[in-house]
Specification:
The chain is α/β, with parallel strands linked by helices and about 350 residues long. It has two domains: about 240 residues, 3-Layer(aba) Sandwich (QueA-like); about 80 residues, QueA-like (Thrombin, subunit H). Helices cover about 20% and strands about 25% of the residues. It has a nine-stranded mixed sheet with strand order 2-1-17-16-14-3-12-13-15. The chain has a six-stranded antiparallel beta barrel with strand order 5-6-7-10-9-8. It has a two-stranded parallel sheet with strand order 4-11. Helix 7 crosses helix 8. The longest helix is centred in the last third of the chain and has 13 residues.
């Protein structure tokens, strides 16, 4: 299977640079994956497609202002992106320019925050140790000086409103460097409407890393390696999902991060296990889904692992035809763009 099989042409003007307001007024393409039938709706109409007893699973991760600008002890400037936290005061980071971050090099971010490069960690990443010269904790400090790491394809600098807009209304647990973007379309009112209809809403946590934007550089899809990401499935979520599967009720994933978490947490029979683990599960056509019955997702980049995942769920030809229709109809693409419901 070739990566080029997942290519499509997208006019640059269809890449959304800002979200719509209110969130649930974005457009919604509804795709029946069995028949290929497409409907064009507004996102808040999702209520009409869900029914009492459906289990809607959301990712409650919260994006941190993970983009930091510092000054090296040599005088040069450096940009840091926090990736994951392996220790109390240590973070694995990506850096620009990475070649300047040699072992032992010191970085100053302001009068209160410094760091030193401890070791290399592969693919241009570094492990750095932070030192805070105040009584503030680390997260409090980066809330002051950090920037929201907007995806590179948005091609603009962060604005103050991105602190709220690039965050789901159910974001609770800090640790992501990218938003679970399918969740950006939900409002508090819409969630309440779903609950009142009898839809059961449960959460998992997967802290989205920069690997979500990692380009596929190999020719054959099967040769690509996903980055590991840590996830957590609460006990009540696992119980509710397993009960729904036993009773023939639907499990609906809000986004590809939820999909990968549930499919990773399930055994071969489809029973989801509670607890914390990590996954580098790569879902592409040929994968047999064990848990999810329907998927809410955004429109994804050409040749991306996310496009391959939705193609695995709905069929490559169905998805590429739907994307052609979305382009023809002027849908907005990527993180701040419109949504699909695939059932």
């Amino acid at each position: 299977m070739k990566v080029s099989d997942f290519d499509y042409k997208l006019p640059k003007e269809l890449i959304a640079k800002f979200p719509v307001e209110p969130r649930d007024s974005s457009r919604l393409m509804v795709l029946n994956k069995n028949t290929g039938k497409i409907e064009h709706r507004i996102f808040k109409d999702i209520v009409e497609y869900l029914k009492a007893g459906d289990v809607l699973v959301i990712n409650d991760t919260k994006v941190i202002p993970a983009r930091l600008f510092g000054k090296l002890d040599t005088g040069g400037k450096v940009e840091i992106l926090l990736v994951r936290q392996p220790g109390l005061n240590t973070w694995e980071v990506m850096a620009k320019p990475a070649r300047k971050l040699k072992k032992g090099r010191k970085i100053s971010f302001d009068e209160e925050l410094e760091a030193v490069v401890k070791e290399y960690s592969g693919e241009g990443k570094r492990i750095i140790e932070f030192v805070i010269k105040s009584n503030k904790d680390f997260m409090e400090k980066i809330e002051e000086i950090g920037h929201i790491p907007l995806p590179p394809y948005i091609e603009r600098e962060e604005k103050p409103e991105d602190r709220e807009k690039y965050q789901t209304v159910f974001a609770r647990k800090e640790g992501a460097v990218a938003a679970p973007t399918a969740g950006l379309h939900f409002t508090t009112e819409l969630l309440e409407n779903l609950k009142s209809k009898g839809i059961i809403i449960k959460n998992i946590t997967l802290h989205v890393g920069p690997g979500t934007f990692k380009p596929v550089k190999v020719e054959n899809v099967e040769d690509h390696q996903m980055d590991y990401e840590t996830y957590y499935v609460p006990e009540d979520t696992a119980i509710e999902i397993n009960r729904a599967k036993e009773e023939g009720r639907r499990v609906i994933a809000v986004g590809t991060t939820v999909t990968r978490t549930l499919e990773s947490a399930a055994d071969e029979s489809g029973k989801v296990k509670q607890g914390e683990d990590s996954t580098n599960l790569f879902i592409y056509p040929g994968y047999k889904f064990k848990v999810i019955d329907a998927l809410i997702t955004n429109f994804h980049l050409p040749r991306s692992t996310l496009l391959m995942l939705v193609s695995a769920f709905a069929g490559k030809e169905r998805i590429l035809n739907a994307y052609k229709e979305a382009v023809r109809k002027g849908y907005r693409f990527y993180s701040y763009g419109d949504a699909m419901f695939i059932f």
